Predict the 3D structure of the following.
Amino acid sequence: MDICKQIEEALVGLSIERVKSLTQTALQDGVAPMEILDRGLVAGLEIIGGKYERQEIFVPELVLAGMAMKEALGLLRPLLERTDIPPIGKVVIGTVEGDVHDVGKNIVSMMLTGAGFRVTDLGIDVSAQKFTDAVREEKPDILALSCLYTPTRLAMKEVIASLQDANLRAQVKVLIGGAPIDQKFCDMIGADGYGADAPAGVRQARSLRAK
Protein backbone atom coordinates (compact mmCIF):
# COMPACT_ATOMS: atom_id res chain seq x y z
CA MET A 1 0.00 0.00 0.00
CA ASP A 2 1.17 3.52 -0.80
CA ILE A 3 2.75 5.02 2.32
CA CYS A 4 0.72 8.23 2.13
CA LYS A 5 -2.40 6.07 2.17
CA GLN A 6 -1.00 4.29 5.22
CA ILE A 7 -0.48 7.64 6.95
CA GLU A 8 -4.06 8.62 6.12
CA GLU A 9 -5.39 5.36 7.57
CA ALA A 10 -3.20 5.65 10.67
CA LEU A 11 -4.54 9.16 11.30
CA VAL A 12 -8.13 8.00 10.85
CA GLY A 13 -7.29 5.15 13.23
CA LEU A 14 -6.05 7.74 15.76
CA SER A 15 -2.68 6.00 16.12
CA ILE A 16 -0.29 8.77 17.16
CA GLU A 17 2.86 6.64 17.17
CA ARG A 18 2.05 5.00 13.83
CA VAL A 19 1.38 8.35 12.15
CA LYS A 20 4.72 9.61 13.41
CA SER A 21 6.70 6.50 12.44
CA LEU A 22 5.12 6.28 8.99
CA THR A 23 5.85 9.95 8.38
CA GLN A 24 9.48 9.35 9.32
CA THR A 25 9.64 6.31 7.03
CA ALA A 26 8.11 8.27 4.15
CA LEU A 27 10.73 11.00 4.55
CA GLN A 28 13.53 8.43 4.66
CA ASP A 29 12.13 6.90 1.46
CA GLY A 30 12.32 10.27 -0.29
CA VAL A 31 8.63 11.16 -0.36
CA ALA A 32 8.23 14.93 -0.66
CA PRO A 33 7.08 16.61 2.58
CA MET A 34 4.24 18.41 0.76
CA GLU A 35 3.02 15.09 -0.67
CA ILE A 36 2.98 13.56 2.82
CA LEU A 37 1.04 16.58 4.06
CA ASP A 38 -1.51 16.64 1.25
CA ARG A 39 -2.04 12.96 0.44
CA GLY A 40 -1.52 11.60 3.94
CA LEU A 41 -2.34 14.03 6.73
CA VAL A 42 -4.83 16.38 5.08
CA ALA A 43 -6.61 13.47 3.40
CA GLY A 44 -6.96 11.78 6.80
CA LEU A 45 -8.07 15.03 8.37
CA GLU A 46 -10.91 15.36 5.89
CA ILE A 47 -12.14 11.85 6.75
CA ILE A 48 -11.89 12.67 10.48
CA GLY A 49 -13.95 15.82 9.88
CA GLY A 50 -16.67 13.84 8.11
CA LYS A 51 -16.83 11.31 10.92
CA TYR A 52 -17.14 14.08 13.49
CA GLU A 53 -19.96 15.77 11.62
CA ARG A 54 -21.82 12.45 11.33
CA GLN A 55 -21.30 12.02 15.10
CA GLU A 56 -19.31 8.83 14.56
CA ILE A 57 -16.52 10.33 16.68
CA PHE A 58 -16.46 13.08 19.30
CA VAL A 59 -14.14 15.67 20.86
CA PRO A 60 -11.73 13.16 22.50
CA GLU A 61 -11.12 11.60 19.10
CA LEU A 62 -10.52 15.04 17.56
CA VAL A 63 -7.95 15.71 20.29
CA LEU A 64 -6.14 12.46 19.45
CA ALA A 65 -6.20 13.27 15.74
CA GLY A 66 -4.81 16.71 16.51
CA MET A 67 -2.02 15.19 18.60
CA ALA A 68 -1.13 12.79 15.78
CA MET A 69 -1.05 15.69 13.32
CA LYS A 70 1.20 17.66 15.67
CA GLU A 71 3.72 14.81 15.90
CA ALA A 72 3.88 14.41 12.12
CA LEU A 73 4.08 18.16 11.53
CA GLY A 74 6.98 18.34 13.95
CA LEU A 75 8.90 16.21 11.44
CA LEU A 76 7.61 17.98 8.33
CA ARG A 77 7.70 21.64 9.38
CA PRO A 78 11.51 22.14 9.31
CA LEU A 79 11.62 20.64 5.81
CA LEU A 80 8.63 22.60 4.55
CA GLU A 81 10.13 25.83 5.89
CA ARG A 82 13.33 25.19 3.91
CA THR A 83 11.40 24.94 0.64
CA ASP A 84 9.97 27.74 -1.45
CA ILE A 85 6.42 26.44 -0.96
CA PRO A 86 4.46 29.21 0.75
CA PRO A 87 1.67 28.53 3.28
CA ILE A 88 -1.83 28.81 1.84
CA GLY A 89 -2.50 31.65 4.27
CA LYS A 90 -1.73 33.16 7.66
CA VAL A 91 -4.03 32.87 10.66
CA VAL A 92 -3.92 34.57 14.05
CA ILE A 93 -6.07 32.68 16.57
CA GLY A 94 -6.99 33.11 20.22
CA THR A 95 -9.66 32.70 22.89
CA VAL A 96 -11.34 36.03 23.64
CA GLU A 97 -10.98 38.06 26.82
CA GLY A 98 -12.70 36.59 29.89
CA ASP A 99 -12.56 33.01 28.57
CA VAL A 100 -9.81 30.57 29.54
CA HIS A 101 -10.90 27.51 27.56
CA ASP A 102 -8.48 26.36 24.91
CA VAL A 103 -9.29 22.75 23.93
CA GLY A 104 -11.41 23.74 20.92
CA LYS A 105 -9.00 26.50 19.92
CA ASN A 106 -6.04 24.13 20.12
CA ILE A 107 -7.77 21.55 17.92
CA VAL A 108 -8.63 24.19 15.33
CA SER A 109 -5.08 25.56 15.47
CA MET A 110 -3.54 22.13 14.86
CA MET A 111 -5.98 21.36 12.06
CA LEU A 112 -5.34 24.70 10.37
CA THR A 113 -1.61 24.02 10.53
CA GLY A 114 -2.19 20.57 9.07
CA ALA A 115 -4.24 22.12 6.26
CA GLY A 116 -1.31 24.32 5.26
CA PHE A 117 -1.89 27.58 7.14
CA ARG A 118 0.79 29.34 9.13
CA VAL A 119 -0.81 29.84 12.55
CA THR A 120 0.03 32.27 15.34
CA ASP A 121 -1.76 31.27 18.55
CA LEU A 122 -2.20 34.12 21.03
CA GLY A 123 -3.55 31.79 23.74
CA ILE A 124 -6.47 32.42 26.08
CA ASP A 125 -8.11 35.48 27.66
CA VAL A 126 -6.86 37.71 24.82
CA SER A 127 -7.92 41.35 24.87
CA ALA A 128 -9.35 43.17 21.86
CA GLN A 129 -6.26 45.38 21.82
CA LYS A 130 -3.92 42.39 21.73
CA PHE A 131 -5.83 40.90 18.79
CA THR A 132 -5.68 44.26 17.01
CA ASP A 133 -1.95 44.61 17.66
CA ALA A 134 -1.37 41.10 16.31
CA VAL A 135 -3.30 41.88 13.12
CA ARG A 136 -1.23 45.04 12.65
CA GLU A 137 2.06 43.20 13.22
CA GLU A 138 1.40 39.79 11.68
CA LYS A 139 -0.82 40.92 8.76
CA PRO A 140 -2.79 37.63 8.73
CA ASP A 141 -5.37 36.71 6.13
CA ILE A 142 -7.70 35.45 8.87
CA LEU A 143 -8.29 36.35 12.51
CA ALA A 144 -9.92 33.39 14.31
CA LEU A 145 -11.75 34.07 17.59
CA SER A 146 -12.86 31.34 20.00
CA CYS A 147 -15.02 31.22 23.13
CA LEU A 148 -16.93 28.72 25.24
CA TYR A 149 -18.92 30.85 27.70
CA THR A 150 -22.00 32.60 26.28
CA PRO A 151 -21.28 35.95 28.04
CA THR A 152 -17.73 36.11 26.64
CA ARG A 153 -18.90 35.92 23.05
CA LEU A 154 -19.67 39.65 23.24
CA ALA A 155 -15.91 40.17 23.42
CA MET A 156 -15.83 39.12 19.76
CA LYS A 157 -17.87 42.20 18.91
CA GLU A 158 -15.35 44.30 20.81
CA VAL A 159 -12.50 42.82 18.76
CA ILE A 160 -14.25 43.74 15.52
CA ALA A 161 -14.91 47.26 16.83
CA SER A 162 -11.25 47.57 17.80
CA LEU A 163 -10.18 46.54 14.30
CA GLN A 164 -12.51 49.13 12.83
CA ASP A 165 -11.18 51.86 15.12
CA ALA A 166 -7.64 50.97 14.02
CA ASN A 167 -8.64 51.00 10.30
CA LEU A 168 -7.65 47.33 10.05
CA ARG A 169 -11.04 45.66 9.56
CA ALA A 170 -10.83 45.63 5.76
CA GLN A 171 -7.43 43.94 5.88
CA VAL A 172 -8.47 40.70 7.59
CA LYS A 173 -11.28 38.16 7.51
CA VAL A 174 -12.76 37.42 10.94
CA LEU A 175 -13.69 33.80 11.63
CA ILE A 176 -15.47 32.96 14.89
CA GLY A 177 -16.34 29.71 16.64
CA GLY A 178 -17.28 28.06 19.92
CA ALA A 179 -20.23 26.47 21.67
CA PRO A 180 -22.43 29.61 21.92
CA ILE A 181 -21.76 30.76 18.33
CA ASP A 182 -24.17 30.39 15.43
CA GLN A 183 -24.75 32.05 12.08
CA LYS A 184 -27.19 34.55 13.54
CA PHE A 185 -24.59 35.81 16.02
CA CYS A 186 -21.95 35.85 13.31
CA ASP A 187 -24.15 38.07 11.15
CA MET A 188 -25.10 40.28 14.10
CA ILE A 189 -21.53 41.24 14.99
CA GLY A 190 -20.34 41.50 11.39
CA ALA A 191 -17.90 38.58 11.34
CA ASP A 192 -17.02 37.04 7.97
CA GLY A 193 -17.75 33.43 8.90
CA TYR A 194 -18.17 30.90 11.68
CA GLY A 195 -17.30 27.28 12.18
CA ALA A 196 -19.78 25.07 14.00
CA ASP A 197 -16.90 22.73 14.90
CA ALA A 198 -13.19 22.34 14.20
CA PRO A 199 -13.45 20.69 10.75
CA ALA A 200 -16.05 23.25 9.67
CA GLY A 201 -13.74 26.01 10.91
CA VAL A 202 -10.95 24.72 8.68
CA ARG A 203 -13.29 24.60 5.68
CA GLN A 204 -14.43 28.15 6.41
CA ALA A 205 -10.83 29.31 6.64
CA ARG A 206 -10.08 27.80 3.25
CA SER A 207 -13.19 29.43 1.78
CA LEU A 208 -12.38 32.83 3.26
CA ARG A 209 -8.78 32.60 2.03
CA ALA A 210 -10.00 31.76 -1.47
CA LYS A 211 -12.11 34.93 -1.46
In short: Residues 59-81 form the longest helix (23 residues). The chain is about 60% helix and 15% strand.
